[in-house]
Design brief:
With 317 residues, the chain is of the alpha+beta class. It has 7 helices and 10 strands. The strands form 2 sheets. A 5-stranded antiparallel sheet has the order 1-10-9-6-7. The protein has a 5-stranded antiparallel sheet with strand order 2-3-4-5-8, covered by helices on one side. The relative contact order is 0.11.
Length: 317
């Protein structure tokens, strides 16, 4: 009889049946010669049975030890990752904090998907009183996307502090990202400059920016008419700009697609119409960002997010 099963329980059952058969034969053929042979067969069969179980037990012990070693190694890797993330967070926060200021005209709200966010929101001003705001959404999530935010933050700081026009800031950012980002990676970004009621904006790949007055009327939607950065080189004269002068009470709203693609437990999306319903309310100089955030939280009600979420509100004048 040939036993091909790898299951030790089946093998053991088969060997037990052999023993039972041998005992039956011993009972039927009660002769001296036959009894000796059958007794030897029984002992040999029982030996094979125990040997099979012993080998199975040894493999189980080895497998358990291997799992324990893998578990310890995984735990060590998690601890190393957490330590490295803490170091990276300190470095990135240092760079971002140097690149951004607390600007009275600008409010920022961010909800990262992971420890690191692929979104970047910054605000600063120059010596002439111009307010510069940047909102960027880099491809991907986590530390890879966050590392791409490092040069964006440093370039934005340097160019804005020099008081450069928006189109030149865009060209500087694009030049760096085109050389730095691997193929298939890019950066959607909006850069805005406000000065004495005049707004200048370049929207390169983000959802439409919205301008609303104090009564909650949307006066402008600034669609993206510039390719995202990091794809191909271009000059300042190729940068598409939106320029408009506003009276007091107007606010600019910029956000990443993670906001308008968020869903709640019923599968409904927090889309542009839902967002604009929260923008289209009367406000004062304090703006609407707190109310928008509260409305968003009530909408999703703790549903896990699937992308980084960022929004910037700028008091134009």
């Amino acid at each position: 009889m040939v036993i091909t099963s790898k299951n030790p329980i089946i093998i053991n059952i088969a060997l037990t049946l052999l023993c039972a058969t041998a005992l039956a034969m011993l009972t039927i053929f009660n002769s001296a010669g036959t009894t000796g042979l059958i007794a030897i067969a029984i002992v040999f069969t029982l030996f094979l049975s125990q040997l099979t179980l012993a080998r199975h037990h040894a493999r189980q012990v080895q497998r358990t030890d291997r799992y324990h070693r893998l578990g310890r190694k995984l735990l060590q890797l998690k601890r190393t990752k957490k330590r490295d993330e803490k170091i990276a967070i300190k470095v990135l926060n240092h760079i971002v904090n140097q690149s951004s200021q607390t600007i009275a005209q600008t409010s920022i709200w961010q909800l990262p998907l992971e420890t690191f966010s692929g979104d970047l929101a910054l605000a600063t001003s120059d010596s002439e009183g111009r307010t510069y705001t940047l909102l960027a959404d880099l491809t991907g999530h986590g530390i890879a996307a966050a590392m791409g935010a490092t040069p964006v933050a440093s370039i934005f700081q340097a160019t804005a502090h020099r008081g450069l026009p928006v189109e030149e800031i865009i060209v500087e950012l694009n030049s760096k990202l085109t050389h730095m980002l691997p193929s298939g990676f890019f950066c959607c970004v909006a850069v805005a400059m406000c000065h004495k009621g005049q707004l200048t904006v370049c929207n390169a790949g983000l959802p439409a920016l919205v301008v609303a007055n104090e009564k909650g009327h949307i006066t402008d939607r600034i669609e993206s008419d510039q390719i995202p950065l990091g794809i191909q080189a271009f000059e300042a004269e190729n940068v598409s700009l939106f320029t408009q002068t506003y009276t007091a009470g107007h606010h600019l709203y910029a956000y990443t697609d993670g906001l308008i693609e968020a869903t709640n437990k019923t599968g409904n999306t927090f889309d542009e119409q839902t967002l604009e319903s929260l923008i289209c309310v009367r406000t004062d100089t304090n703006g609407r960002l707190k109310q928008i955030r509260s409305g968003f939280e009530q909408f999703v009600k703790g549903t896990p997010q699937n992308d980084d979420i960022s929004m910037v509100e700028v008091n134009i004048c």
